[in-house]
Design a protein that fits this description.
- This protein is mostly helical and 382 residues long.
- It is 86% helix and 0% strand.
- It contains 12 helices and no strands.
- The relative contact order is 0.14.
Length: 382
Amino acid sequence: MWPLYAAGFTTAFGAHGIAANLGGFSDDAVTSLLVLGGLLALYDGAEVVLKPVFGSLADRIGAKPVLLGGLLFFAAASALYAVADSPGWLWAARLGQGAAASAFSPSASALVARLNPAAKRGRAFGGYGFHKSIGYTLGPLLGGLLVWAGGLRLLFTVMAVLAAAVALWALLAVPAVPPLPKQRQTLADLARRLADRSFLAPTAALAAATAALSVGVGFLPVSGAAAGLGTVATGAAVSVLAACAAVVQPYAGRALDAGRLTTRTGLAVGLATTSAGVLCATLPGLAGVLTAAILIGAGTGLITPLGFTALATGTPEERMGQTMGSAELGRELGDAGGPLLVAAVATVSTLTYGFAALAVLLAVGPLLTLASLRHRKAATPI
């Protein structure tokens, strides 16, 4: 499991470590906000398009070869800019990193599910999510230190060495998980399976959690700055958010495995907590920012391992990669959709109303769950 955790850390560290430092330390390559936006979107765009493709490939040829290939390609794409050191090659390197992450991220999730029995998957996904959150937390800080010490080339060099080392570790330590025989699947069969509630509910919860996380990271500093807080205070608030998400995930996974928490209840509580956190972002001053960071982090930390465990439990073993790739696509859409919603509402009103709109949207999930439970209770004969 440890090489898989390291792969999760690598994709998170690579995504945030580089993205957080492109604008401030690369004047030769990032000449405008439009160029910066394009470089940031390039990575996520590749993931949106390719994650379901590589997830299905993992089911066909095995998840370990796709994992290793993705890590090696990530190392090669990172080394490309480290060697070339040209603005044009930065675009190619960033696109290559996004394509590579599209391969090894869903493959790692599929292997986490395949290598653990159902009774231990909550703990396994909790550990995997913990290490990804650590990557998201440390990425901007360590990336900034590396760029300060040696420029973007040093950061890309470290990413290349890290990915290559994790690939070697996975090659030696992760057992081969051969693809399972499966019946032929038509597009209609795939559509029916992805439209089933056992897939849609956890994926929607994961997308909502990712939307709130992205909004917290992107807009809490704006809210803090408007309240007169300095960059240190707002940066600390974002770190608190990521740290809470990291700490909660292992506990949530263990509680699920031990039967102290059900998926339905956990997802509903997680969405309600996240919604409350986004709503707290409308409060003025440091108290509102910190409370929002804590609650958003705790809520998303609760949702993530439970959502992935529910997906793994409701998926045939031979289709695990395809499900994980499709679920990752849902998360990427939430990652983009949350900030777009808040920004759109804030443009025509204020940021406070943007936060409130997202909070209302997140609260729909728990309300639907409560309504479903009441309906089932009323339908049960006495």
